[in-house]
Amino acid sequence: MPESATRPVAARSRADNGDMATLTLTAKETFKPTPKSAAVPSDETVRQIALDQIVTNPDQPRKSFYQDTLDELAASIKERGVLEPIVVRPFEGKFQVVMGERRFRASGLAGKATIPALVKEMSDEDAHADALLENFQREDMNPVEKARAIQGLLTFMSWEKCGKTLGVSETTLRRSLELLELPPFVQVELTLRDPQPGQILLTEGHCRALGALAHDPASQKRMVDKIKIEKLNVGDAEKIMGAIVKHPEKREAFLRVPIAITEQLLKTLGARAEKAKPYRPQTAEQHMKAIDKIGQQLGELLDERVIEYLSAVQMNQMLATCAELGRGLDEFNRKIRLALKSKEYGFQETYIHCPLCGRVELVGSLRCSVCWTILRRCYDCGNYDRTQEKCAVNGGRVYVAEAESPKEYSKSYKCPDYKPKYDAQAVKTLKMAA
Ligand code: SF4
Predict the structure, then answer these.
(1) Is the pLDDT of residue 222 over 60?
(2) What separation, in Å, do the N-terminal and C-terminal C-alpha atoms of the chain show?
(3) 105 and 186 fall within a common domain
(4) CA 108, 112, 114, 118 torsion: positive or negative?
(5) Same domain? 259 vs 387
(6) Is the CB of 363 under 6 A from ligand 1?
(7) Is residue 360 part of a domain?
(8) How wide is the angle at C-alpha 373 spanned by C-alphas 372 and 374, nearest 5°?
(9) Residue 346 CA to ligand 1 centre (angstroms)
């Protein structure tokens, strides 16, 4: 038996040009080769075979041969030669590589004319099985290649036998095969190496987390971008996926906001769920107070200091979220009007002009929503007697100066008796025409 087969599996390294290494499918499970997988009959003799007499196996499970590691191996072969023979089988007048394609390729790069090889008579099935098992012993085989190799083994092995051969549980086999159910663009992420400076690579953990959005490839793509842009670790990605599964109606928000805000959002949603109580009718004033409070909380959440910590992409996401919030408020506004108009409450919309920009506002605001100027309630009121400088309804004195430039504490603010001088319907028409 070759020396390398007797060494502890974990002690083998990729630098060993025997090219043996551990397969780590989970943190605890390591590859345990069976006698068949390691089987190279001890009575076989090693022959030097010319490289031009050897062909590669097109069904080789390993598709990625990274140039940098091939160059390293070629340098080692130049220095020390090929320490462990490759395994070949007679094939169409030549020899086909069964195990050791990297050594074969690197020998070519190193300028060698021959390579030590063991020639074995093998059926197609045995050659395929040995090639797959040999590849499993490499630590640089990517997770998708491993999953494809397991798939290949299962075409001629039972699940039980495959698990025993690889020394892993059936659950691990299934988890590995799940990777092949991911969309191609996610699988490609798992085959990438050598990230650019400042970039991260997706791991199996990231990709498994994406499985929660299996029915929505577009969102999976956005999540992949989010993981890369925000450099999320597996825990963060799982947290976002878990949040989307738990609160599907907030999926858009979870995909857009940074992870720090995701946590805050989850806390708010959790607290809200805890506090959820049966609906109790409230007065209009109580509803107004509640809406006012939420508005203030939202304002605090979107404090301008947050901007210092946001990237341009995140700012765009924030603006898009605010635009949606605006649309939500418009819908809220529309429903309130419909509700009020559907009942015979005698409800009538009442407007007031902004003295600075001319915008027509619904009465109820202290300031113009555009230019923030204080609105002149008495000055525009039909009950205001300008010559007497007083209110015709309550007889209170309202000086012209105050009517023209009211202060925030002016009594007229919130006056329930305000009656605009102009026709509300005409103002609405004017507004719609504008
Ligand atoms: S009714 Fe109200 S708004 Fe109108 S003039 Fe009197 S105090 Fe001012």
Answers:
(1) yes
(2) 91
(3) no
(4) negative
(5) no
(6) no
(7) yes
(8) 115
(9) 21
Distance (angstroms) between ligand 1 centre and the Cα of 414 equals: 9
Distance 344 CA to ligand 1 centre (A): 26
Per-residue exposure over 153-192, b if at least 16 CB sit within 10 Å of its own CB, e if not: beeebeeeebbebbbbeeebbebbeebeebeeebbebbee
For residue range 282-308, list pLDDT tens digits in order: 777 777 788 888 878 777 776 666 667
Closest atom of ligand 1 relative to the 394 alpha carbon: 6
Based on the fold, state whether residues 76 and 117 are members of the same structural domain. yes
Cβ–ligand 1 distance for 379 under 6 Å, the answer no
Residues 370 and 335 in one domain: no
Tens digit of each residue's pLDDT (9 = 90 or more) over 225-257: 888 888 888 888 888 888 888 888 888 888 888
What pLDDT digit, counting tens, does each position of 34-63 carry?
333 334 443 467 788 898 889 887 766 666
β-pairing, 94-99 vs 54-55, is: parallel
Residue 197 has pLDDT above 80, yes or no: no
Residues 359 and 234 in one domain: no
Q: Where are the beta strands (DSSP E) in 375-418?
A: 384-385, 390-391
Q: Cα separation of 253 and 261, whole Å?
A: 10
What is the CA(67)–ligand 1 centre distance, in A?
A: 84
CA nearest to 258, candidates 315, 296, 202, 212: 315
Which two structure tokens, joined as six digits, stand for 278?
């049966």
Does residue 163 lie within any of the structural domains?
no
Domain that holds residue 108: 3-141
Instruction: Judge if 119 and 195 occupy the same domain.
Output: no
DSSP state letters, 335-360: HHHHHHHHTTS-----EEE-TTT--E
pLDDT at residue 3 in the model: 37
Q: Which of 125-134, 245-254, 404-413 has the lowest mean pLDDT?
A: 125-134
In-domain check, residue 288: no
State pLDDT tens for residues 252-280.
Answer: 888 888 887 887 887 777 766 666 566 67
Per the structure block, which two tokens stand in for 107?
A: 């020998």
- Judge if 360 and 427 occupy the same domain: yes
What total of structural domains would you count in the chain? 4
Residues 8 and 116 in one domain: yes
